[in-house]
Amino acid sequence: MMFMVVGAWADHHGEKPKIVILATGGTIAGSAETQTQAGYTSGQVGVDILIDAVPQIEDLAEVTGEQIANVGSQDMSDAIWLKLANRINELAASDEVDGIVITHGTDTIEETGYFLNLAVKTDKPVVMTAAMRPSTALSADGPLNIFNAVAVAADPEARGRGVLIVANDDIHGARGITKTSTTDVQTFMSPERGLIGVSLYGVNRYFRYPYRLHTTESEFSVAAVDALPRVDVVYITADVSPDLIDCAVASGAKGLITAGVGNGNMTGPALEAVKRAVAKGVVVVRSSRVPSGSVGRNVEVNDDEVGSVASGELNPAKARVLLKLALLKTKDATTIQDYFDRY
């Protein structure tokens, strides 16, 4: 394990690291009428107010901010993803930027994080953070999360670890993190591979590096991309209606993710609908609605026969992200299976 006190590093080099905060909205920028009510409106507070609320970050870094969007993360979109990834790549190419922090809503941060993990092209720290309580709440969690996120982004030991998500003193990798509770402040978990590290009031400890390809090793690029392919997720239940799959294909989906039962399994009629989709050139990836575990190829479903792809450890939301990027390059299921095995 490695320990890092950011302030000591800054003093040794004679100047503070330069960190840019890119704000996208979310609960961390939310507002409510009282400090103790559950209801609130996301994306009400601008980046300058978020920064001003944490004056202690001046001890860690020189911080500037930009407002990329100001939405609840339920309204996060492909267009914002592309704007965010391209802006990160622009900033990271500058010698005047040492690290980047993104404030985001908790609902889709794992999707945005994994997208950026595949689309940004830098070893510099790219750190996302969020909050479960709005900025006006009693004991709001956003300010300390921002403080710790800046501490990680300013930390040379965070380089090369892919996109990180810092919340509630934990440092997660973008590939492994998932939201597990609708309201609990400790909502984020990395169920398969565990934490990348922890950050306690700006003192960082790292346990590992991500084990799959990311950032500078990624072969995916969105530099000249105006839109991403449509990929739909179909939730599999007992006696699921196979026409849900047929309707997604008829509506223009280029790829499908099945949130299957168990090891990515589904009913016989649903599997026949998958075969029809594959015959029409739609790439189908089998994931699972189960919170943890891996969907194996040719285990409960004969993927070789069906023409489907197994998602491995990626949950349906993240499988959708990877398939969107994969479809920019190919529709070949064998090649896409290789992507799922390596990313």
User: How would you sum up the major sheet?
Assistant: 9 strands, mixed
Give the helix proportion (percent range): 25-40%
- Could you give the order of the helices and strands? EHEHEHEHEHEEEEEEEHEHEHEHH
CATH superfamily of the largest domain: L-asparaginase, N-terminal domain
State the CATH architecture of the largest domain. 3-Layer(aba) Sandwich
Q: What fraction of residues sit in β-strands?
A: 15-25%
Question: How are the strands ordered across the major sheet?
Answer: 1-11-10-7-6-5-4-2-3
Low-confidence region ranges: 1-9
Number of domains: 2
What is the CATH top level name of the largest domain?
A: Alpha Beta
- Which class best fits the helix and strand makeup? alpha/beta
CATH topology of the largest domain: Rossmann fold
Q: Mind telling me the C-alpha Rg?
A: 20 Å
How many alpha or pi helices?
A: 10
Distance between the termini: 25 Å
So what's the overall shape? globular
Nearest-integer average pLDDT = 93
Let me know the number of strands. 15
Can I get a quick summary?
This protein is α/β, with parallel strands linked by helices. It has ten helices and 15 strands.
